[in-house]
Amino acid sequence: MPWIVLLLSAVCEAVWATALGASEGFTQPVPTVVFAVFVVASMVGLGWSMKQIPIGTAYAVWVGVGAALTVTWSIATGAEAFAIGKVVFIAGIIAAVIGLKLVPAQRVEEDHHPDATTTARGD
Hints:
By secondary structure, this protein is an all-alpha fold. It contains four helices and no strands. The longest helix has 23 residues, at 55-77. The protein is flat and about 45 Å long.
């Protein structure tokens, strides 16, 4: 479930990024409202998924998928020019995201030694 929420959150990121561009500096009301709603939804989803997915992995997936979707949408709508290089590198981002999902998650255990409060100098 955390991965599904993370991916939905990344979709929300692409929506708010696109709406941000369309808001023309927050002067257009509809894109500004879309931005506000989706930025909150995106952050809530990212924050929740980070409870179960390591922060570095979750953030990399969120940014990567969001960026890939934003560029893909821009190309599909004609707002950005198509280029084979863009497609190749966007595919690379998606491959990296899939790779992060396939790598087994390992959490770092906190050090709970009784003297863990001392500094490296032995204070």
